[in-house]
Amino acid sequence: MPMFMTLKNNNEVFVNVGTRIVPLNLFHAGSLSGVYEAMDFIIGRKSNPIWSYSAGSRTIIMLPKIADKLGLKRLKAIYDIPSDLQPKDFFDHWYLFKAITRSKVFKQIWNNEILFFGAEWIKNKNDSLAWKKLKDYWLYQIWTQTQFVMDKIKFNFMWSKAIETISSRRLHPKPYLIDQIKHIFSVAAGYYPVFKPIEITQDSAPTKELQQVFVEIYKLKQYLPTMMHVCTITDEIIKPRFVYYSWALPTVLEGSPLKNVTSTTMSDMREIKQIIETIEERCLPKLSTMESLSFLKHIDFDYFHYEKDICDEIHSSNEIPEEDASFLEDLKYYPSRSLCTVSRFFSGCLRISMKHYLK
Q1: Strand 315-316 to 299-305 pairing
Q2: Per the CB 3.0–4.6 Å rule, which of 71, 154, 191, 313 could disulfide with 218?
């Protein structure tokens, strides 16, 4: 994988684990990628990256259900969509979007531009001031991105302390719930991305015409054609106020996303809420010795489901657009429609936000 700089629109780096896609990061114009592989090349070490890159967002979904057979039949009659393409879950949405946008009938022009730095750039021995500045910049980028790995090592050590806290309170969560909570904390610390509504910039996909296609051709019913993609909560370009993790779209990289078939998503959420609150209550006063968990001081967690919680611990998904106006941006173009708060995405959804935002 050569080193390259994104010049126009976004790139997503992801891992394909077979049954699902795990997003790792969203890169914007000006971002440098492939720096680990470049360093391997410099020191003569063979690279074997497990990740891939996409032009635009790879982990991209539409909130309303788009599996209606008649709607898909109308799309297939106009666009070059494979006859066997039938979206079964959120991970299939990208394949349908890709088929539509690659059709000759699709009119919105969208492309992604990158600048490759081939081997001669890396091997160059020129010692002029200009080359020295360029190589110093590369080394700075490589070292900066390496901090992620070092911070993760510290985080994993402190996570073991958090596990001890859970055990001391006589809580015995199932292993897959522990994996979920560790991933949620990694997201809150800014290590991994989760979802937010796509902005109107078109940087991640040609969403303007895609939305029109689903409203006018597919005949999406009363809902807004809300599209979501991933970014980190610390993204300095998008600067999201809220990001969302959905149990219906697990992006867990370390551990298992599979739930216990004997439990419900609602009961799992209540248990996760209890464990997170226990960790916050017991660990935050000890931050001098657990500094890697200090991000918890600046994070709020809110829990949502489209079904009513009889224990009144989980909020209704109907409340989400009341605080997050980004879900209502599409009302400018589709004023007679409403947000699909009964989307499967909201059948167990965690909202993560920074406390410095005013509510």
Answers
A1: parallel
A2: 71
Q: How far is CA 28 from CA 6, 37, 203, 354, in A?
A: 6, 19, 8, 22
User: In the chain, which residue ranges form alpha helices assigned H by DSSP?
Assistant: 35-42, 69-78, 93-101, 119-123, 129-168, 175-188, 207-212, 265-283, 320-323
C-alpha to C-alpha distance for 177 and 315, rounded to whole angstroms = 20
Phi first, then psi: give them for residue 205, nearest 5 degrees: -175, 160
Q: pLDDT for 165-190, tens place per residue?
A: 777 777 777 888 888 999 999 999 89
The CA–CA distances, whole Å, from 141 to 33, 35, 113, 337 equal 9, 7, 20, 45
Six-digit token pair at 152?
A: 């993760």
The tens digit of pLDDT for each residue in 107-120 reads 999 999 999 998 88
CA dihedral 101, 105, 110, 112 (to 10 degrees): 60
Please, which contacts does 317-325 make with residues 24 or more away whose CB atoms are closer than 8 Å? 317/341, 317/342, 317/343, 317/346, 317/349, 320/346, 320/349, 320/351, 323/242, 323/359, 324/197, 324/241, 324/242, 324/351
pLDDT tens digit sequence for 137-167: 888 888 887 887 788 788 887 787 777 777 7
Which residue has 């989760």 as its token pair? 194
Query: Measured in whole angstroms, how far is the alpha carbon of residue 119 from the centre of its chain?
Result: 32
Amino acid type, 164: E
20-46: average pLDDT: 89
Longest dimension (CA), the chain: 70
Number of residues that this document lists for the chain: 359
* Pure H helices in 169-264: 175-188, 207-212
One-letter amino acid at 11 equals N
Q: Which helix (H) or strand (E) holds 33?
A: strand 32-33
> Which is it for the CA torsion 339, 345, 349, 351, positive or negative?
negative
Give the Cα separation of 20 and 250 in Å (integer): 9
Does residue 256 sit in helix, strand or coil?
coil
Say how far residue 220 (Cα) sits from the centre of its chain. Answer: 25
State the distance between the two ends of the chain, measured CA to CA, in whole angstroms. Answer: 43
Phi, psi of 158 (to 5 degrees): -70, -30
Give the start-end residues of each E strand in 52-185: 52-55, 61-62, 113-117
Contact 215, 75 (CB under 8 A): no
